Amino acid sequence: MMGRLLKWLAGIFGLVLLIIVAAAVILPLVIDPNDHKDTIEQLVKERTGRELQITDRLELSVFPALGVTTGGVTLSNAPGFGDQPFAQIDKLDLRVKLMPLFSGQLEVDALLLKGLTLNLARDKQGHTNWEDLSKETEAAPAGEAPSGGGEAIGFNISGVQIEQAKLVWDDRQKGEKYVLRDLSLTSGALAPGAQVPVEMGFTLDSEKPVMSLRFGLESTLSIGDDLKTFGLPDLEAKLHAEGEGLPAKGLDLSLKAALALDQNKETLSVDGLKLQGNGIAIDGNLSGRNLGAEPEFDGDLVLGKTDPGALLALFGAAPQTRDSGVLKTLSGKLGLHARGSTVRLKPLTLSLDDSRLTGELSLQGPAIRFALDLDQIDLDRYLPPASETEPKATSASAAEDPLAGLRQLDMKGRVTIGSLKLSNLTMSKVEVQINASNGVLKVDPMTAELYQGKLKSMVTVDARKAQPRIHLVEDLTGVQIEPLLKDLADNDRLSGTGVVHANLTMQGMSDQAIRSSLNGKVSFEFHDGAVKGINIAKAIRKVKSKLGGAATVTDDKTEQTDFTVISGSAVITDGVIRNDDLQAKSPLLRVAGKGRVDLPANTLDYVVTTTLVKSLQGQGSQDEQLTGVPIPVRLHGSLTEPSYSIDLKSVLASKARQKAEETLKKKIEEKAGGKLGEKLRGLLR
Length: 685
Prior knowledge:
By secondary structure, the protein is an alpha+beta fold. It is elongated, with a radius of gyration of 44 Å. The termini are far apart. The chain contains nine helices and 33 strands. Among the domains are: about 470-645, no CATH class; about 655-685.
């Protein structure tokens, strides 16, 4: 009985095999798929609303591989996206081995795709030209299990060959267009546990910015037995790019690395990373985890010794610096930590020329956060050469808005600098807190030690409008003013230890606009110093000689006036500084001043009134002829080279009045005595 059953089963199997062989031979002979082209095209029209055209013959095979070969396939575009086809295929050859399908195995005998063109687009309203092809199918009725359940079938692909493929992405909503052309992909047999040679290449063209990028890759793809682990242990890739913002001869980069992906553990590792080209050399390692949920990446990167000046020159952006010896060496190390949209660089170490920067930096989406420490830097060396003339102002329509980036900036952090030189000022122990958001940049506070004193300031730049508004609050204490002014403005007309308080606002981009819009208040007080460029004692001696006084000793050649204290305040309105309370004291003199300085016009008109409190003895004089006589000195003309003159009429009038008062006082004293004389003398005092 059992033997007879086996015979029946063997017979049935043989019959099935015979039917399959017969079908493989007979079906292609009796069934011509080209007779059904119209039916296929009509079915596509009914299901998608698209026009499908197949101009080449359909070649059908059944055994030993179920396959189809055709070409000239065109699928029309969605309405409103133009006449160009959505997809086009010059040649397609797909063959699937038939017998393995009966045992749950998918074995692709051949896959050839040549001349694929796929035009993807999005209109100005945000709709894509594939929306109508990707509609969700209706959900299964409640209680019914979805069809197609069970274990996934295994697969083998004898090889993949894609030639001359082209993908176009036209985003009309953003005004961007990218073309991926000359795409080629060749691989060996793809199967569980296989080591598959892979070659791929493509060219990417962009319209904004105008750029062309050519990419090529060669490696061996390692496939795990469970189809869950993959590796590229010998990845080599090359990139050549040309276009806007790139070197004139193009950008050439090469990449080597070993990649391993484990889908079971949701991990990715990149070992032995080496990126080189155009003066760049980066080595490092990278590891990733939680790839299925919120990916996390950690790594270490090393930037080899690089010539940043030469690198910038390649990109056509080599800056002109005051010191040709800067931008020569750049190197660094950083730890990379990424969690979702947050990227953190810690620790961060960069060396530029003779400066070293350490700290950490994080990018949280568009937000920038940092804490950085710089040992020392001379920023003046990196500034452009000083221009002899002020650049012409440009309107917003004539040039790009230089503050557009600031309006989008979201930044907060701290910077400390051991030694800083800026605008020829030398500072140490500099600490700056920076906060920028919603178009407003605030530096508060900025502290530093400079010229034996301390600085504390606050600066706010409001860039929400075309013309920025600036608010400056500054406090200087214990500062040696002479070397500060010498370094800052090449002007050493004032010396002494001082305190300065300023609260100023200004507006504009140019120096002239800032001068004209300057408003606020300033107060100052200096001790044990001098005003250089004017010797009041010498001027008084000249006045005395004109008044017929005794001859003076040889003039003091020092053109300065010493003081023990000098103080004052000023109110600034639209660039015009008004001061009415200047006070200066010395053992010899008392000085009061008032007047105005016009910054937009670069002029001043100021009167300094000097009064001797004792004789000029020790200053070249032998009597007290001018003691107590107010002597007005007028400073006028150019702010950089002022002239000064003395009001002789006022001096003569004061001297005459003084003599008259002394004569009257003497006569009263001679003629009057007792209490009446005392009262009269008191009235004259």
